[in-house]
């Protein structure tokens, strides 16, 4: 939500510029992490998309599942 609060400080910016901004959310429930993305659409409604979920490896035998966690957070670095 921080991005949308920042947009309110730039009242002279164009609506098309606001449409390019996205806010990411990370939710953790027990041993599952979910990455979601929210942005504004042309009709001034919100678009919410769940991008990916992954199980957190909690024991040694599941250690190879860390790649799924890294794939989950990768979009935060390239967007």
As laid out across the biggest beta sheet, the strand order is 1-2-3
Distance linking N and C termini: 16 Å
According to DSSP, the number of beta strands is 3
Secondary-structure element string: HHEEEHH
Question: What is the compact description of this entry?
Answer:
The chain has 79 residues and is of the alpha+beta class. The chain has four helices and three strands, in the order H-H-E-E-E-H-H. It has one domain.
Describe the structure.
- This protein is α+β, with helices and mostly antiparallel strands and 79 residues long.
- The protein has one domain (2-78).
- Helix content is 30%, strand content 34%.
- The chain has a three-stranded antiparallel sheet with strand order 1-2-3.
- The protein starts with a helix and ends with a helix.
- The relative contact order is 0.16.
- The model has no long low-confidence stretch (mean pLDDT 84).
Topology:
Layout: H1 2-8, H2 15-19, E1 22-29, E2 32-40, E3 46-55, H3 66-73, H4 75-78
Antiparallel strand pairs: 1-2, 2-3
What attributes does this structure have?
79 residues, alpha+beta, 3-stranded antiparallel β-sheet, 3 strands, 34% strand
């Amino acid at each position: 939500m921080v991005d949308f609060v920042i947009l309110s400080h730039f009242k002279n910016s164009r609506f098309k510029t606001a449409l390019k901004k996205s806010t990411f959310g990370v939710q953790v429930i027990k041993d599952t992490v979910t990455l979601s993305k929210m942005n504004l659409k042309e009709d001034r409604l919100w678009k919410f998309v769940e991008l990916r979920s992954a199980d957190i490896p909690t024991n040694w035998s599941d250690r190879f599942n860390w790649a799924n966690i890294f794939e989950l957070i990768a979009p935060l670095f390239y967007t």
